[in-house]
Design brief:
The chain is an all-alpha fold and 196 residues long. The protein has a domain at 59-188: Serine Threonine Protein Phosphatase 5, Tetratricopeptide repeat. The protein has helices at residues 8-15, 18-21, 34-37, 42-50, 66-72, 76-84, 99-105, 109-117, 138-144, 148-156, 168-188. 39% of the residues are buried.
């Protein structure tokens, strides 16, 4: 509970007790470990990791990892701390989703950038997982929820998308974003237009 509420000083005191340290990977009735409860608090994550909390064990029954939870909620500091502890940014849950897809879906630009800077693969798709009902990738998630800056960042970093997989409204919006990016590139290359 202290980890979930961000009570740093309480967590410090609790972790001094060897009996508490021995239970640092225990789960609550919803299957969450202390790392998962603390995903909004990078300093508490650091303390838990020092007390031998396991990034590998911090996973829900459906394969959702602590890194995915932190990224879904836009906690880039926590995501960085977890990746430093070897959390795999490309790990997929039972539906094939990754931490990058979660961050992109919710429009967390800083978290998307942190993941990519630490090696997240931008074009992983859910296609190979039997639990997925529709093929998605990080770019698809960002397009679906109209996160323009995230879409642009992903495209600039090599993300691709099967435009045919988009519904007509999303397809039109995506093409508009790509066209505006292409116009900016043309201007940057010196097309002769003066914007001043």
């Amino acid at each position: 509970m202290a980890a979930e509420e961000g009570a740093l000083e309480v967590v410090k005191v609790l972790l001094r007790d060897p009996a508490v340290q021995a239970r640092v990977n225990d789960r609550d009735i919803q299957g969450r470990t202390p790392l998962m409860l603390a995903c909004a608090y990078p300093r508490i994550i650091d303390l838990l990791l020092l007390a031998n909390a396991s990034v590998e064990e911090a996973k829900l029954a459906d394969g959702v990892t602590v890194l995915m939870l932190a990224c879904r909620d836009g906690h880039s500091g926590s995501a960085i701390a977890l990746m430093k502890a070897d959390a795999d940014p490309d790990e997929q849950d039972d539906r094939g989703r990754t931490a990058l897809m979660a961050a992109a879906e919710y429009g967390h630009m800083e978290t998307v950038l942190a993941l990519m800077e630490r090696g997240a693969t931008v074009n992983i798709s859910t296609a190979s997982h039997s639990g997925c009902t529709r093929e998605k990738c990080a770019l698809f998630c960002a397009v679906e929820y109209r996160h323009t800056d995230v879409v642009k960042l992903l495209i600039e970093n090599g993300a691709t998308l099967d435009v045919a997989s988009l519904n007509p409204t999303d397809k039109a919006w995506y093409e508009e974003v790509v066209n505006s990016m292409n116009q900016i590139v043309m201007l940057d290359r010196g097309s002769g237009l003066d914007l001043v």
